[in-house]
């Protein structure tokens, strides 16, 4: 691979990362068009760079090509949600069960996400609330101190956001989780990882059930 190609791949990865963060932040929603010409202007990138970034999002399950419409942010279904939670149980529970007593910086990162969610709740900004909650769970996986797993879980967080956005009322869906995030953090701070893992397992069971019910509900007329 020559230097020119390496630079091109680096730029494409950067654009893909920014698009992924826009999904996690709720700024790109399922069904939205990802128009090459608009992205070229937005990111001051070449069409080839943008195209490679969109291919990367497609490989990650975040974008899909729709005939006669182009590339669009993907809509996820029941099978994808079940698979997401299989991954979440594998990574988040493993991270907690094998965690050592939290270092101050690890606790601070989790608290920053929790406090961000509290502020978003006060503003009734439920989109931001969901983003902070996802960041909390990214910090849980971060306990394993694996950059590769961190990068992989960022994609899982983005897919979770795509499912969140399908809720008729994001407030009703998001509100119950804040106290549970804080409880898990407090158990980890107290050096009680087994109890934290039990709390997280119950959390994930309830979250998956709620999302499957959401996706199974009949569409409004």
Structural summary, described in words:
By secondary structure, this protein is mostly helical. It folds into two domains: about 5-75, Arc Repressor Mutant, subunit A (Orthogonal Bundle); about 80-215, GntR ligand-binding domain-like (Four Helix Bundle (Hemerythrin (Met), subunit A)). The protein has helices spanning about 5-25, 35-45, 45-60, 80-95, 105-125, 125-140, 145-165, 170-175, 175-190, 195-215, and strands spanning about 65, 70-75. Strands 1-2 form a two-stranded antiparallel sheet. A hairpin with a 3-residue loop joins β1 and β2. α1 packs across α7, α4 (about 80-95) runs antiparallel to α10 (about 195-215) and α5 runs antiparallel to α6 (about 125-140). The longest helix is centred in the C-terminal third of the chain and has 24 residues, at about 195-215. It is globular, with a radius of gyration of 18 Å.
């Amino acid at each position: 691979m020559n230097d020119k190609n390496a630079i091109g791949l680096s730029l494409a990865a950067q654009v893909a990362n920014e698009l992924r963060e826009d999904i996690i932040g709720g700024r790109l929603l399922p069904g939205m068009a990802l128009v090459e010409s608009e992205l070229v202007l937005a990111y001051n990138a070449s069409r080839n760079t943008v195209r490679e970034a969109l291919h990367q999002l497609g490989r990650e399950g975040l974008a899909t090509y729709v005939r006669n419409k182009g590339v669009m942010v993907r809509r996820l279904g029941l099978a994808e949600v079940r698979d997401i939670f299989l991954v979440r149980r594998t990574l988040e529970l493993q991270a907690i069960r094998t965690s050592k007593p939290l270092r101050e910086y690890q606790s601070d990162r989790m608290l920053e996400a929790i406090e961000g969610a509290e502020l978003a709740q006060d503003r009734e900004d439920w989109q931001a609330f969901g983003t902070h909650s996802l960041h909390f769970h990214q910090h849980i996986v971060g306990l394993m101190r694996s950059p590769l797993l961190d990068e992989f879980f960022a994609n899982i967080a983005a897919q979770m956001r795509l499912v969140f956005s399908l809720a008729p009322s994001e407030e009703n869906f998001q509100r119950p989780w804040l106290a549970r995030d804080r409880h898990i953090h407090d158990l980890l701070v107290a050096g009680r990882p087994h109890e934290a893992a039990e709390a997280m397992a119950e959390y994930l069971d309830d979250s998956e059930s709620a999302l499957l019910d959401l996706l199974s509900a009949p569409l409004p007329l």
